[in-house]
């Protein structure tokens, strides 16, 4: 059952927390997780931000003063009776901590907006229609203010939530943007969100080599049946331009945003025979359904999966299914 009140009551009655998100973190993962982290600190809880992945380069500004540790470092602390809070993770298997950290928590709180989420937590706040998990955290903090009669959102929390909202809604342009999203953005501004800092760092600070890689990736672009556009980034490209794998998700909209194209696909070679696939759709195709065919998931308009095969074979397989979807 979704229950904000039960989650809020539980948080206030407990002491030790681990917060984390899914593997390959993005803006909404980081914004929602960081805002819960700051909130728990604010109410004098012991909280550990644990994540086994590195942060994308354009999100580093958010975590300058935050101690993020990996699973091994957390286990060395020998913390017992902790509650695990997962943010923006639709699949328990994709939580970005070691399995024994998941298994040894006394309670798991699951806050998420993926339609594929199966309510794997002991306490769940899952709303598939929400624009972002950051919007769900915002709802939780506003409800906490109503129940406990004190201000929950400060400048740091507002900036983190604004980052999550802007990245998951494409700066309030995607179809998952609702009236509530604009209301949230307004209130975050009132509460001190550093909007220009978010815009400059998240959307306006790509390194020069990113654009050189983008240019080469665009040269691989193909349009199939006028409705599907596909492009790729190889390991050789990443090495040639010294760009990290985690910093290339911003390329996929270039495939989707072509006139008449409905599905945009980016194939990303992470290692030999490991191809990560980013999927975006424009108006009607369900790329979450497409991703599930290959064991992935996500949202109707944005999803991803992994194909364990060569780049060329992955391309053939993905295109075959994408053409069925349109």
TrEMBL record:
SUPFAM superfamilies: DHH phosphoesterases. InterPro entries: DDH_dom (IPR001667), DHH_sf (IPR038763), DHHA1_dom (IPR003156), Oligoribo/pAp-PDE_c-di-AMP_PDE (IPR051319). It holds the Pfam family DHHA1. It is an enzyme of class 3 (hydrolase). Keywords: Hydrolase. Residues 228-323 form the DHHA1 domain. Residues 17-164 form the DDH domain. One of its GO terms (molecular function) is hydrolase activity. Its EC number is 3.1.-.-. This is Bifunctional oligoribonuclease and PAP phosphatase NrnA. It comes from Terrisporobacter mayombei. The gene is nrnA.
